[in-house]
């Protein structure tokens, strides 16, 4: 897994910048070298929406015998998944 590069100048986006653009900046990002504007593509939005849902459903069925184990497992896995999102998310140039 690699972080995405700019299509124009081939500058690689940083993990921190990608993470912030996915969670805090409305799914928009701008290349720091050539100022090309990028938006999150539709496939990545679907991954963002449904991956946590599937994890929650799977963990609730797996650890349904103890509420606290389920709660801790769900919280821990969602944190872990959120740190991996910048490697999976793909941005496309805004036209």
TrEMBL record:
Domain of life: Bacteria
InterPro entries: CxxC_20_CxxC (IPR026369)
Transmembrane segments: 46-63, 69-89
Keywords: Membrane, Transmembrane, Transmembrane helix
Protein name per its UniProtKB record: Cxxc_20_cxxc protein
Organism of origin: Anaerobacillus arseniciselenatis
